[in-house]
Amino acid sequence: ATTRHHEWEISYQLKSPDCVRKLAVTINGQSPGPTIRATQGDTIVVRVNNSLLTENAAIHWHGIRQIGTPWADGTEGVTQCPILPGDTFTYTFAVDRPGTYMYHAHYGMQRSAGLYGMIVVAAAPGGPDAEPFAYDGEHDVLLNDWWHDSTYEQAAGLASVPMRWVEEPQSLLINGRGRFNCSASAAAAAEEGTCNATLAECDAPVFDVVPGKTYRFRVGSLTSLCALNFEIEGHPMTVVEADGHYVKPFVVNNLNIYSGETYSVLIKADQDPNRNYWLASNVVSRKPGTPTGTAILSYAGGRSPPPTTPPAGPAWNDTMYRFRQSEATVAHPAHVEPPPPRANRTILLLNTQNKIDGRVRWALNNVSFKLPHTPYLVAMKRGLLGAFDQRPPPETYEYQSYNIYDPPPNPNATSSDGVYRLQFGSVVDVILQNANMLDANKSETHPWHLHGHDFWVLGYGIGRFDPKVHPATYNLKDPILKNTVAVHPYGWTALRFKADNPGVWAFHCHIEAHFFMGMGIVFEEGIERVAELPGEIMGCGKTKGGRH
Ligand SMILES: O=C1O[C@H]([C@@H](O)CO)C(O)=C1O
Fold first, then answer.
1. Most buried by CB count within 10 Å: which residue of 149, 305, 327, 431?
2. Coil, helix or strand for 33?
3. Going by CA atoms, what residue is nearest to atom 4 of ligand 1?
4. CB–CB of 307/326 below 8 Å?
């Protein structure tokens, strides 16, 4: 095993990811930031210098469980104080599993400003986690959405009364590049002078293949909002990995991918080699208002756009199409890790859009999450009881009587920074129950991400989860382990994990605006087993002066 050192400087840069010049938050001048490449068992050391003039930062290593290093999870307010402008913070953690992971800002809505990248961990050769598939070459694809409003304008709008929603993004990015139509529309006119379609910076990315060879595409999504459908024109994809776990292979013509998820797919370069093909990213689940994001699959090294129209993806509102892909994603037969047969505790979480003091918020069992000013990890370890609400949030809701197809009968929620405290080593089931939003006849997809763990995905349904009926339908035979999972419109998703990683861990909707609006909870387990905290994570709230 190797220790890999990285020196990063976070700074504002004027970038034109979709040909329109905007402020971006970058790493060493780039967005996406550098890809971290490692082998299973390596230790990663990233020294982050915050050179933003006026803004805090924190970086989360998405999908890395941080076993024994909960203070390195990078979740502002949960595991650390923010890194102040001018300060340096060193993240040290092990990559103990092979697979495709990502990193991104976890401070306010900073991720949307471009602070993100990929982590690619190769399997230890010949080890038990060696890949059960073969390929000749690989490409990394990071999918994003991009707005011309700054993250500050977006956050301010979301917190206003009435709320100003972020709306659909201007562009979809592939590896940080997109293409806004500078010559069309009034929106384009508003960008006059800052839109330059001839910039190399917004040229379509090109992925080279050699005819006859098989390629692994590692695809990750860190969209702020959009559920996406990814397609490589004319090339069916065999899904082989999801969130760092090997999948029982299945073939799709296009792949639905939610923010926070990663997949590996295999394609064979077996099409007419005298032309190029599109890579396409399309919005699904919400009514699209954004053009297809494109890149080029090149057989002969050429960069010319394919002669065809880019694939438009499946019908955006075909929930069952996406549901079936969710259900098809199960563990590879040779890599099944069976879940414990039963849970010690079941937490049923009703996801609703609510209001607090006239502000639109999201809530779980009518409680909307607010981040405390003192990170939980320090507050709990030090017994700073005044740092957060000591009352536990609710474990369930009135599922017998609640109509998930109607807007919430009582739209008013409360807010809390209370924590679900889990018995160390216990098995916990969480059922995410989706419902109608404030507007009638509307329910959206939410990708839920758990820090510090992978969870087994036991089942999905559409409609109301019944604790007396649905547990009997769980897949206990070969469920996939993941760190991010979708709850479909009006649907439910059941997951199970073992609370065996000492620390404090966020669990939240990975839509940037939704977490900002309270759509998350926090788990604590085994806090007494957490080793002495590094002073580096302190310095804010009730931990002021704690660095010594
Ligand atoms: O929180 C949200 O607000 C909007 C909409 O409900 C109001 O414009 C939307 O789609 C969300 O997910």
1. 431
2. coil
3. 165
4. no
What backbone phi and psi angles, to 5 degrees, belong to 408? -55, 130
Our answer on whether the CB atom of 454 is closer than 6 Å to any ligand 1 atom is no
Instruction: State which amino acid sits at residue 328.
Output: A
pLDDT at 548: 43
**Residue type present at position 177:** R
Please name the residues in contact with 188: beta carbons below 8 A apart, sequence gap of 6 or more: 180, 181, 182, 195
Distance CA 145, CA 171 (A): 6
**Residue 165 alpha carbon to ligand 1 centre in Å:** 6
How would you classify the pairing of strands 171-174 and 206-208? unpaired
The Cα–Cα gap between 137 and 218 comes to: 11
Residue reference for tokens 């959206």: 444
Question: Would you say 497 and 469 are in contact if contact means Cβ atoms under 8 Å apart?
Answer: no
Confidence (pLDDT) at 185: 66
Given the CA of residue 362, which atom of ligand 1 is nearest to it? 1
For residue range 402-426, list pLDDT tens digits in order.
Answer: 999 999 999 999 999 999 999 999 9
Cα gap 103→8, rounded to integer Å: 13
Q: Which stretches does DSSP call E strand in 366-454?
A: 367-369, 414-416, 420-422, 427-433, 446-450
* Ligand 1 site, residue 250, Cβ cutoff 6 A: no
The answer, yes or no, to whether any atom of ligand 1 lies below 6 A from the CB of 224, is no
**Is the CB of residue 437 below 6 angstroms from any atom belonging to ligand 1?**
yes
At 307, the amino acid letter reads P
> Can you tell me whether residue 189 is helix, strand or coil?
helix
- pLDDT interval class at 193 (50, 70, 90): confident
pLDDT score for 207:
98
pLDDT in tens, 211-227: 999 999 999 999 999 99
Instruction: Tell me the CA–centroid distance for residue 306 and ligand 1, in Å.
Output: 36
Look over the chain and give the mean of its residue pLDDT values, rounded to a whole number.
Answer: 97
Prior bond to 32 cis, omega within 30?
Answer: yes
Atom of ligand 1 nearest to the CA of 444: 12
Q: How far apart are CA 161 and CA 38, in angstroms?
A: 46
- Residue 188 pLDDT > 90, yes or no? no
Structure tokens at 340: 């414990």
